[in-house]
Design a protein that fits this description.
The complex is a heterodimer. Chain A is an alpha/beta fold. Chain A has seven helices and 17 strands. In chain A, strands 8-9-10-13-15-14 form a six-stranded mixed β-sheet, covered by helices on one side. Chain A has a five-stranded mixed β-sheet with strand order 7-2-1-16-17, covered by helices on one side. Chain B has 14 helices and two strands, in the order αααααααααααββααα. Chain B has two domains: 170 residues, no CATH class; 109 residues, no CATH class. Classes of the chains: A alpha/beta, B mainly alpha.
Chain lengths: 318, 351
């Protein structure tokens, strides 16, 4: 049995550039399987205000932008999308209305997210069809449920959430985009108990755990993969004397227990962008490639798997 | 915590040094020097002047001496090694890096100004001239470093000890910085698989890269032993020259960055994209850095600094760069059986 080369990336949070780079890995890294872990949708809408027929303004990362042609507007929209934000053109009055009406804002946000994911799925079909590369895209705790049917509707991209899928002749994979509770009460935040039950329901159906991959968005608790800045009651990072952030374990106990009990071959995780690294729980190699989507850098990990072993792996930064 | 302790001890040393010199004053120092050194203050200056010591400032000597000035500032940008862990790094580093240069420069200026006031630049320069030319008029049993000359200002061994201990703590604390930097470098090479992957193991409880730390500590102890008991570490005598090669490479990278990695340049913060006319500021700064690197590199191996160039030492210095390239290719060949090393940072087109 030849080795299977897997490329895994995660937490691109709506970055158009990172998703296109993800698709480009099919050509550049030549994997057999590509897996995009969760948190694929963006976090913010940047409005582009039509001040007049010939002038538009916007504010991006503290920089005030003024555009005077359609070409300039499109260039700014591309820049905004590249780093994971969504754009919406509106008059000043319309923008203020949307901002003050939570329902309208949520509806707009959902529409922009779904449009983006839909275009990504179509692009993946266009770029990867005929390549023989298996492409799996799963949601994460930040992603709303509205995107699930969009991915499921694809005739090429595979939606692995909640299922046992065979990625090749030997290896199975279970996927779970849910995480333990976070301070932001994200759409897929659930209790540790519920998370444990979801993982167990899939793991019970795996035929050969020795060759199984756990594609679990949330990393195992108190490892090198889940260290995040500790937040105070105002959700601001707590700074230590001397200036460094105080770090705390943000991962899931249920995930750790599941891995410890089941001992799959491999754990692929994301969720904590700062905690790029590796950790072994018994025989299980757990990896978190981290994320630098806001800098338009696609962080990932390439792995060669063969039988019940990870023969080789390497973190990538594209 | 240890950093704070070092800082306090160093400040005590500096303050003791400065206050002692101001207290003894030029007349008091001169009297002590004449009484205790076995030399005469005025005679030392006149012998040196007669022997060729220039009594006015020479631009050529000053510019060559920039190599030593730069050595004093080495490490001012070491905070870049921990940029990933700094809050609001773009603002923090923009303040911290120039501020550390300015603060250190002010401290050094105070020390040098006080030293020149009490001991006088003429005496320091004359003693250095006599020592450097091996003139028999030089009677001191040690080089005329100002820490040594300070003993003619200190009223007691305790005062002398406090000041010198502070200077010693400065050296010790800076070496801790380089220990930290070396551990980070070794960890990064291992993490990126250029070095064996076992070197990037991290302690599960403390998050410490303990394998890299142990390896660097062992190598450091061995190097310290070699320095103390053998002449082998003289092979690193052209370290500043090597450093300038490294800096020049960084400078060239900075110069071409706006065109070579246009996508990252365009996505960078506003300050990075600033231009002077049509030319990116980072290109201009890179060019200035390149010129300075070439000059300081030359100055560090000029005849005034090192005498005749040692071919062995030069070959060793350049050999270190070649060794790095060789190690990379060995690692690359080793990993050809698995995932090619070149994919690690391969550019991915976002089209």
């Amino acid at each position: 049995m030849a080795r299977t080369r897997v490329f895994y990336s995660t937490d691109i949070h709506g970055s158009e550039d990172c998703f296109r780079k993800f698709l480009a890995t099919g050509r550049e890294y030549k994997p057999n399987v590509m897996i995009l872990g969760g948190d694929i949708t963006g976090k913010m809408i940047i409005p582009i205000i039509a001040e007049s027929q010939t002038e538009w303004t916007s504010t991006l990362l503290g920089e005030r932008l003024t555009m005077r042609s359609e070409a300039e507007v499109q260039a700014v929209e591309k820049r905004i999308r590249a780093i994971g934000y969504y754009t919406h053109r509106a008059s000043r009055e319309e923008a203020e209305q949307i901002q003050s009406d939570k329902q309208k804002l949520d509806a707009l946000f959902s529409k922009l997210m779904c449009d983006s994911v839909s275009s990504w799925v179509r692009l993946a079909e266009e770029r990867l069809k005929g390549s023989g590369i298996g492409c799996y895209i799963s949601p994460g705790n930040d992603d709303t449920f509205a995107i699930d049917p969009i991915i499921q509707s694809s005739d090429y991209v595979i939606y692995p959430e909640g299922k046992v899928v065979a990625i090749d002749d030997q290896h199975e994979m279970i996927s779970c985009g849910y995480s333990n509770m976070t301070p932001w009460n994200c759409p897929r935040d659930i209790s540790e108990e519920a998370l444990g039950e979801k993982i167990a329901a899939m793991a019970d159906k795996v035929r050969n755990m020795e060759m199984c991959i756990f594609n679990l968005h949330c990393p195992p608790h108190n490892t090198t993969l889940d260290q995040a800045p500790k937040l105070d009651k105002d959700l601001r990072p707590s700074v230590q004397p001397g200036g460094g952030f105080e770090m705390a374990a943000a991962g899931s106990v249920a995930v750790k227990d599941a891995i410890r009990k089941r001992q799959p071959m491999l754990g692929l995780h994301g969720h904590i962008h700062e905690s790029r690294g590796t950790f072994k729980i018994g025989r299980t190699l757990c990896l978190n490639p981290g994320s630098e989507y806001a800098e338009r850098i696609l962080r990932g990990v390439l792995l060669d798997i063969d039988g019940n072993r990870v023969r080789d792996f390497m973190f990538t930064s594209g | 915590m240890s950093v704070k302790v070092f800082f306090v001890l160093i400040v005590i040393g500096f303050v003791t040094y400065i206050l002692t010199l101001l207290y003894i004053g030029p007349a008091g120092f001169k009297a002590n020097f004449n009484a205790q050194s076995g030399m005469n203050y005025d005679e030392a200056i006149s012998i040196a002047t007669a022997g060729g010591y220039p009594t006015t400032m020479l631009w050529s000597a000053t510019l060559l001496g920039l190599a030593f000035t730069f050595i004093n500032y080495l490490g001012f940008n070491s905070s870049i090694y921990m940029s990933g862990e700094i809050k609001k790094v773009d603002r923090a580093q923009l303040i911290a890096i120039p501020a550390s240069v300015i603060v250190f420069g002010v401290i050094m200026w105070i020390i040098y100004a006080t030293t020149y006031y009490t001991i006088s630049p003429e005496l320091i320069g004359s003693l250095a001239f006599l020592y450097g030319t091996g003139d028999p008029a030089y009677k001191l049993a040690y080089p005329p470093f100002f820490q040594n000359l300070f003993m003619f200002a200190a009223p007691s061994p305790l005062v002398y000890g406090l000041a010198i201990f502070g200077f010693a703590m400065m050296t010790l604390s800076s070496s801790m910085t380089y220990l930290f930097v070396c551990v980070r470098l070794l960890f990064a090479w291992s993490f990126d698989r250029v070095a064996p992957t076992g070197l990037s193991k991290v302690d599960a409880r403390y998050g410490s890269p303990y394998v890299a730390l142990i390896v660097v500590s062992i190598v450091t102890i061995i190097m310290a032993g070699l320095w103390l008991y053998t002449p082998w570490l003289s092979l690193f005598a052209y370290a500043v020259f090597g450093w300038m090669i490294m800096q020049a490479i960084g400078a060239i990278s900075g110069m071409i960055f706006p065109w070579r990695r246009k996508d990252i340049f365009e996505a960078s913060p506003k300050i990075v994209k600033m231009k002077v006319g049509p030319v990116p500021l980072i290109t201009i700064l890179g060019f200035i850095t390149l010129l300075l690197s070439i000059w300081i590199g030359y100055a560090s191996i000029s005849p005034a600094m090192v005498g005749t160039i040692s071919p062995t030492t030069m070959e060793f210095t350049i050999g270190l760069f070649i060794l790095g390239i060789i190690l990379y290719y060995i690692s690359s060949l080793y990993h050809r059986r698995g995932i090619p090393l070149e994919l690690s940072f391969k550019q991915l087109p976002p089209e």
